[in-house]
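Fill in residues.
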């Protein structure tokens, strides 16, 4: 029996295959790959761009301004779609590819899918060394693309055209697997891209992908039920895996029926609304007094879809040494951490099975009401810090509250690095599910504006919140990566950007000084500059206007209120800047393990070292 073939170049075949991959979101069939972020150059401009140009109405290509930021935009898109749809980012070889490594690390740390495609050197090596090639004397097969191996879940280099037949499905399988989810990288040798090959027609048949929901071992469920039934002060920690599984409602119903308070990780925030009856606040270093008090008292902790990062666990000081963990996670690696009773499986499936097996069991009657009382105290503390005062310079907390109040229910808050994460993790009151994106798995400076662009794209189509992305960031992060303001203006994807200008890297200066080191090289006034008494401050509004955005600088909270109303009525990306206090922060009461010099001539450092040793004495090491 003869099989039909289609003769295409490798690049054409790759692109054609991408266009016939589909998935379902809320019951609607949609393309698995929603589009491509691309900067064309040496290595992808002649062959891959030729293939993408031919399908631009089916698989749209969006031009970025920086390879890192366009890959970060793809990550913001994936987050907004809760890992159910994927964007591609493509670059040239050499510096273009290396610019995407940081974004790959961000996706890897956060377990988010993005397909990275970069040009590579010649498989034949005939013209070596080619433009932008980094030569390794002892290994001619090594290129800059090998740098992606440490920050991707799937990596391949295509040296023969037929290799994509097996490689592409494996890349998608990794990106959609709840346990292995993360970025996939494919390097395309330049001469291989041009080669024509007779591909089997079956390779291009449309395929509908489904995200698997692995179920846990029955014995693990039974063991978890037995342990949970011993609990007198149980606690649920809701992580990002709960959101990606779509288990928010199931967890909320389970918690309400069983009388268990739910606290949230940074990635889990937004799974429940702020005033949900079982919500007790964010946990950890940038968490609430309510959640951290409950963590200290908990005897059984049900961790759902969280990798239990140090910020979640207070570097493992937040819990009693006698506390027991039940960890529901699709990834065995995460489920086994800290000798937890591992329930390896999909969050939704596992919670449903756990609920069915628990029978009539409930936590002690007063447990959830006490948690809500603690949460009410925390909410009042927030109010005390967020209420405007007569101070001429507003605090982050006051700005966050004003933006939060002005935001529509469906608007998505986006933040990542600097002082903003702590303030929004504590103080942003989520109004609707899946409207909060704080990238703190990698805390990638520069994620914010790029992710806002990707999030704005994701608001179109099934499963979208439908609102406007609201990006909050500091002046230091703005200076690091802002060019996608221009991208969003060009493409017509609106976001609102609030720049809090506190004169440098204020929150890291706070940590530096808290650990005994004098302010140094963080705040602008502490840097080696010409005029320390009056350092030059960037006019962010004028800068944004130069890139086509609407922009306004605010001198006060009253100005900010008017600017937010104006921004919401605008038809394009709008940037608002406001000077904020570099020294006022909402308090946190969880510990954090960081390195402090063991010896120092400074008494302040010696005191900080002693305090750090006290923190380490409380850690659950090996427990």
């Amino acid at each position: 029996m003869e099989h039909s073939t289609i003769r295409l170049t490798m690049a054409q075949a790759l692109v054609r295959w991408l266009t016939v991959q589909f998935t379902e979101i809320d019951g609607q069939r949609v393309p698995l790959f929603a589009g491509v972020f691309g900067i064309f150059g040496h290595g992808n401009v002649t062959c891959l761009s030729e293939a993408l140009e031919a399908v631009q109405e089916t698989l749209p290509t969006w031009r970025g301004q920086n390879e890192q930021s366009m890959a970060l935009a793809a990550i913001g898109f994936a987050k907004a779609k809760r890992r159910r749809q994927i964007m591609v980012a493509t670059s040239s070889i050499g510096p273009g590819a290396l610019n995407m490594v940081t974004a790959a690390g961000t996706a890897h740390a956060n377990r988010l899918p993005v397909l990275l495609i970069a040009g590579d050197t010649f498989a034949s090596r005939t013209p070596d060394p080619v433009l932008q090639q980094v030569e390794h004397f002892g290994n001619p097969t090594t290129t800059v693309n090998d740098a992606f191996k440490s920050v991707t879940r799937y990596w391949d280099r295509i040296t023969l055209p037929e290799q994509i037949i097996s490689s592409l499905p494996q890349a998608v399988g990794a990106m959609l697997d709840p346990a292995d989810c993360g970025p996939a990288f494919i390097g395309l040798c330049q001469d291989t891209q041009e080669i024509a090959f007779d591909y089997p027609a079956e390779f291009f048949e449309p395929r509908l992908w489904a995200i698997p929901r692995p179920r846990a071992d029955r014995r693990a469920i039974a063991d978890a039920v037995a342990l949970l039934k011993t609990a007198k002060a149980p606690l649920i920690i809701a992580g990002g895996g709960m959101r990606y599984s779509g288990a928010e409602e199931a967890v909320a119903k389970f918690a309400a029926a069983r009388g268990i308070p739910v606290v949230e990780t940074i990635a889990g925030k937004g799974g429940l609304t702020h005033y949900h009856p079982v919500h007790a606040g964010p946990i950890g270093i940038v968490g609430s007094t309510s959640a951290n008090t409950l963590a200290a008292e908990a005897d059984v902790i049900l961790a759902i879809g969280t990798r239990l990062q140090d910020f979640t666990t207070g570097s493992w000081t937040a819990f009693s040494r006698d506390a027991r963990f039940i960890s529901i996670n699709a990834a065995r690696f995460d489920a086994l951490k800290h000798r937890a009773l591992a329930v390896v499986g999909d969050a939704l499936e596992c919670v449903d099975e756990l609920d069915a097996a628990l029978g009539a069991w409930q936590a002690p009657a007063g447990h959830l009401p006490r948690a809500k009382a603690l949460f009410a105290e925390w909410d009042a503390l927030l109010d005390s810090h967020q209420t405007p005062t007569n101070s001429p310079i507003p605090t982050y907390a006051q700005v966050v509250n004003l933006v939060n109040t002005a935001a529509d229910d469906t608007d998505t808050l986006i933040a990542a690095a600097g002082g903003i994460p702590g303030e929004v993790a504590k103080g942003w009151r989520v109004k609707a599910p899946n409207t909060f994106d704080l990238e703190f798995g990698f805390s990638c400076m520069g994620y914010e504006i790029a992710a806002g662009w990707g999030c704005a794209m994701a608001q179109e189509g099934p499963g979208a919140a439908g609102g406007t992305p609201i990006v909050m960031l500091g002046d230091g992060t703005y200076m690091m990566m802002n060019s996608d303001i221009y991208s969003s203006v060009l493409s017509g994807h609106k976001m609102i950007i609030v720049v809090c200008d506190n004169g440098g890297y204020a929150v890291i200066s706070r940590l530096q000084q808290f650990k005994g080191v004098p302010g140094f090289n963080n705040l602008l006034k502490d840097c080696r500059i010409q005029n320390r008494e009056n350092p030059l401050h960037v006019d962010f509004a004028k800068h944004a206007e130069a890139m086509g955005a609407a922009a306004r600088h605010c001198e006060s909270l009253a100005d900010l209120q008017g600017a937010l109303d104006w921004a919401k009525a605008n038809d394009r990306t709008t940037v608002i800047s406001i000077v904020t206090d570099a020294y006022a922060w909402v308090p946190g009461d969880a510990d954090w393990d960081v390195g402090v010099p063991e010896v120092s001539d400074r008494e302040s450092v010696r005191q900080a070292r002693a305090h750090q040793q006290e923190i380490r004495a409380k850690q659950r090491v090996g427990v």
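The chain has a mean pLDDT of 96.
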